[in-house]
Amino acid sequence: MKLVPQSAPYIRKNVSVSRMMLDVLVALFPVTLFAMIQNGWNGIYVILISSITMVFFELFIHMLIKWPKDMKIKEFFTKEGFKKVKETYTINNIYAPLISAIIYSLILPAGTRGYVVFIGAAFGIIIGKMVFGGLGQNIFNPAAAGRIFVSICFSLSYDNGGVDLVSGATPLGLVKGNLSNINSYGILDLFIGNAPGAMGEVCVLLILIGALYLLIRRSADFRAMFGYIITFTLIMLIVSITYYFGVSKEASIGEMLFYQLFSGGVMFAGVFMITDPVTSPTSKFGRVFYAASAGAITVLIRICGSYPEGAAFSILIMNMFTPAIDYFMRGKPNKYTWKELLILFGMILVISGILIAYILVKVGGAS
Fold first, then answer.
1. What would the pLDDT profile of 48-98 be if each residue is shown by its tens digit?
2. Membrane-spanning residues where (predicted)?
3. How many angstroms separate the CA atoms of 201 and 109, rounded?
4. Range 204-233 burial, b when 16+ CB lie within 10 A, else e
5. Per-domain residue ranges of the chain
6. Which of 304, 212, 203, 217 minimizes the C-alpha distance to 263?
C-alpha cells in the first residue's frame, strides 16, 4: 500500500479541491462585479492591489518552503532547476490566495489607501497563512487576519478607508448604542446594496445568489453556513425582543432583527468566510459548534463591544479553537448526540443571558 501525503482541505465527496476553489471564485464574481461597478476605480484598485500582493507572496514564500534540497539559487534559472520548483506549485496555489485576496478586498471600504491594502494583504497571507506552512496548514483565515490587522493599526473602520477618507456612517455605526437611528436605512436598501459599508457586504441579494450556487455545487458546507447565520438570527431575535419590551419600542422587533442581519458582514461572512474548509473543524458537530459559536460572538461584539461589527473578529477567535474542537471530537462517531446538542444550546443560552442582562442593565439604564 502506498501512502500519499496531502494537505487540507480533506473532502469526503466526489469533488476536487481545485473545483471547489473555482466554484468559490464563481460565487464571488457577482459581488465583486457589483463592488467594482458601484465604486469605480476606488473599488477596482483595492481588489487589484490585494490580489497581486497575496498571489505574489504565496508564490515567493512557497518557493522558499518547498525549495529542493541541495539546489543552489543559480540553478533556479536553468530549465531543470525551474522545473524542480515548478513541480511543487499547482493551480491551487493560485486559486487559494486569489480567493483570500478577493474576500479581503471585499471586506474593506472602497477607497482604502493603497499602502493600507498592501500591508493588510501581506500580513494576512504571510502571518495568517504561510508561516504555518502554506496551503492547507494555516489555522487563521487570511482575509480576516488582514482585515483585523489594518483595523487595529490604522483605525480603519467601515466608515473610514484611510487617512482623510470618510464615506459616511454605515448602518451599523448609526445604531451602535442608539436604535433610534434604525430608520435611517430601509431593509430593502440594505438588501439590494443601497447603503454604505464594506464593498462586498452591502448587497445581500448577490451574496445569497453566491450561497445558492455554492450549495447547489456542494462546494460549501451547509452546516457551517446555516449554523452561523441561524445562530446569529436566533440570538439577535432574543436581543430585539428584550430591547423592544425592556428598553424602547421606537422600532419593531422585525425591523431591529433584519436591520442587524442585513447590515455589515454577517451574510458575507456566513457564506464566504465561515465555510473555509481549512480553518474550520473536520467533524459534523464540530463545524456546527464552530459556526454557531462564531455567530454568537458576533452578536456579543456588536451589542457589548466597542466595534459596531464583529464578524471577522468572531471568525479569528473561533479559528483558535478549531484544533481544540477537533481534539475533543477525535475518535467520536461523526454524528450528532444529545450531549453535543445540549452543549450547543447551553452556549446559546449563556450568550443570550449575558446579552439580556447587558441590555436591561446598561442600555436600559442609559435610556
1. 999 999 999 998 888 777 766 766 666 666 666 666 666 677 788 889 999
2. 20-37, 43-65, 89-108, 114-132, 198-216, 225-245, 257-275, 287-305, 311-329, 341-361
3. 10
4. bebbebbbebbbebebbbebbbbbbbebbb
5. 13-168, 173-367
6. 203
